[in-house]
Write a structure and sequence with these properties.
Anti_sigma_zinc_sf, binds zinc ion, mainly alpha, 0% strand, rod-shaped, 5 helices
Length: 161
C-alpha cells in the first residue's frame, strides 16, 4: 500500500471503477490519510462544481421556461388572432374616424350650401325689392354679357386669322 491510487480517485468519485478497482480503492482510503484528505478535497471540489453548475443551470432553465411560456402565449393561432384583432381595431378606429369626419364634412358642406342658398335668396330678394338695384343688376348683367360676347368674338377672330 505504498502507491497512492490518486489518478483513480476522480474515477472512483464518478463511479467509473470496476468492482475490483473500487474495492482496492476503498481499502486503501480506509488506511491512507493522505488519500482520505485528497478524496475530501475532491468531494468539496465536486460539490462546488455541482453548485456552480446548478447556479448556471438555473438561470438557463429559467430562460428556457420564460421562452417556453412566451412560445406558448404566442402560438401561431394566438398570433393570428392578435393580428386579426389589431387589424379589426385599426379598421374600426379608421372607420369611426372616417364616419365622424365624413359626417362632419357633410354637415359642414350641407350647412355651407344652405347658408349660400339663404344668402343668394336674401340677396336676390333684396335686389328685387329695390327697383334701382334690380335695374342696376340687369344693366350690370347685360354689360357682363356683352363684354363676354365681345371678348369671345375677339378671341374667335384672333384664332381665325
Ligand atoms: Zn494513499
Amino acid at each position: 500500500m505504498t502507491k497512492h491510487p490518486e489518478d483513480q480517485l476522480s474515477a472512483y468519485l464518478d463511479d467509473e471503477l470496476n468492482n475490483d478497482e473500487r474495492r482496492r480503492m476503498e481499502d486503501h482510503i480506509e488506511k491512507c490519510e493522505s488519500c482520505q484528505a485528497l478524496l475530501e478535497d475532491l468531494l468539496v471540489l465536486q460539490r462546488d462544481l455541482v453548485q456552480t453548475f446548478n447556479l448556471i443551470q438555473e438561470p438557463a432553465d429559467l430562460e428556457v421556461r420564460v421562452l417556453q411560456s412566451i412560445a406558448k402565449e404566442e402560438s401561431p393561432a394566438t398570433v393570428g388572432k392578435g393580428w386579426l384583432f389589431g387589424f379589426l381595431m385599426v379598421s374600426l378606429t379608421l372607420g369611426i374616424f372616417w364616419f365622424v369626419t365624413g359626417s362632419v364634412l357633410v354637415k359642414l358642406v350641407h350647412g355651407f350650401s344652405k347658408l349660400m342658398i339663404a344668402m343668394v335668396y336674401v340677396a336676390s330678394h333684396f335686389i328685387l325689392s329695390v327697383p334701382v338695384l334690380t335695374a342696376l343688376t340687369v344693366v350690370l348683367s347685360l354689360i357682363i354679357l356683352v363684354t363676354s360676347i365681345y371678348s369671345l368674338r375677339r378671341l374667335l377672330q384672333t384664332t381665325a386669322s
